[in-house]
User: Fold these one by one.
Assistant:
Number 1:
Amino acid sequence: PNFWRAPTDNDRGNRMAERHAVWRQAAEHARVGGVRIRREVDETAFVQVDQTYPDAADTAGTLTYTFTPVGDIRVTFKVEPKGKGLASLPRVGLTMQIPLAYDQVTWLGRGPHESYADRKDAAFFGKYTLNARDFYFPYVEPQECGNRTDTLWVTFTDRTGKGIRVTGDPKINFGVLPYTAGELSARKHPWELNPCGNWIVTLDYG
């Protein structure tokens, strides 16, 4: 799970990083309360993980993976923020890493340029394809960038078409960068950024 994003230019004026700092490492410091595994007769397997987030008061969540015999993985994440004076969530979603070879990105959603919930009217709905390296924009100070909103599905493939496909239920936001959110937050200039060696993919409810 991921609750944090690197501040953007719009955020820096209202000190988003300070107001929402409680969420910065909430997922990293999560505690597992229990794991349940169930297998159906058709070989579908369910793995449910119950988690609490001590950094965020009494917040708790459930992460469920459903593995099907044909190789599909359905991921469901539910979280309930709870605690007096708890700041709103900057992000609700999942983060994963994929190989650098999966650099061909095609999606059905808003594009072709980046868009966010509060600025997406100029990003029109359609089918788009970009190289993953084109999702990063070198702002003067490194920050969150490259998000795409209202996405029905997105694929990350290599030059032969091998890769993965992610489908929303019904829609997601997504982004792909060579840098982690922590790296973007820690650096002051683009030339100081260190790629992590994989693509960092964010898949967000919002």
Number 2:
Amino acid sequence: LIRLWLHECSRVFRDRLVDDADREWFRPLVSEKMTQHFKMAWSDVVGTQDHILFCDFMVPNADVRRYIEVQDTNKAVKVVEEYLDDYNAISNTPMKLVMFLDAVDHISRISRVIRQPQGHMLLLGVGGSGRQSLTRLAAHIAEYKLFQIEVTKSYGQNEWRDDLKKMLTKAGLDNQVVVFLFTDTQIVKESFLEDINNILNTGEVPALWAADEMDNILSTCRPLVQQEGGKQDKNSIYRYFVRRCQRNIHI
């Protein structure tokens, strides 16, 4: 029970800390609370590890993914290596990565966030530290579609809006879970961030759809809303589409 409590503290608080100084502050504080309230030392609960590792991908191809504690960290590394081999076998851009425990820990954190409804992450780090690669692998492990824009010299507002339409169509009409991988180098215009903020807050981008595109959204979603016994007016049908986008998009 104490190990589970420690994991929840790590999941809720430690996952959000962005530098070593804050993480070094976290461990003594939790250790103090364990001693104060549970009369147990860190080593009694955790052993020689820095923290406890939980994930839901230790059994590949499982019908029901169980979120459980990893008892054997060496096995976890091997399992992630198998996922990486599988990714490289089907990808046009294979990743030559060396898996180790810290990388598996990062993947487990990304995985548990994107597996939650409206789970979004901001990954901080220097270039080449593996943020994109581990996100790609975590999306593959979760069996989600990964979506990323391709910025060229001529990439502008029109191309950006077209890409957003493609992503929202996958999520809202095709009901596919999409991981949108967006890097700071792809912010060609500040308006891109405004659109991202709108998707995070409301699940939609104002004035994005043309009249014929809106008609297609309404006609596609209408029978789905009818099956669920929802209202058939245009606003209710469109809100159904937006809720799908909110549920299926992870940024």
Number 3:
Amino acid sequence: MNLEFRKLKASEIDARVATVTAKGCSLLLYKDARVDQKVLDETVGAFNWERSHEVIDGNLYCTVRIYDDDRKMWVAKQDVGTESYTEKEKGQASDSFKRACFNWGIGRELYTAPFIWISEGDCKIEQKNGGGYTTRDTFKVTSIAYDQDGNINHLEIKNNKTHKVCYQLGCKEINDYISMKEQTILAGMVKDKGYEVEEIFPKGLNLTTEQYLQAIETIKKLKAKK
């Protein structure tokens, strides 16, 4: 079984507040269970994976099985969940499923995320009555890109209330266009796989950084299929 899951898109990643101080807040990147389900369906097919849960020593574990058509058998990977603050059983079930999917490689690139700090000038910080600080602002990942090793090398996050960019990683803007030299190399790679550029990119080259990196992922998948 030669299995490779695609990298997560910006729209599939949540940016949640982790810690808050008087000077700002830190964020962590997450995926939810629906994203895992979507990626599994896309990659192996809705009928070629399954999940199950069991309690071991008082902890809820999830096992995700994927059918290996080459060996005609199911391959399983398992992990344990942690409680949510709201619904204990549902939280453990969802968390254990997401963790099991991390074991399969879905969203593992999130572990390469940098430390994300939003300063007080880019979010509204409030002091609690009993001491400490909080923020009611929420945040959204608007663009993300990865290097050839799957590490995050570009990240843009916006504040949902102000609609302003409050965090950026990477010296190259995501909307900068790739150089003609790089696009020529990419076009050669596409044709080398037996495809016309127009088949992969209906609007031709002239790609943004994000589109270019997605194109590289497409070519890798074409190569794996041949």
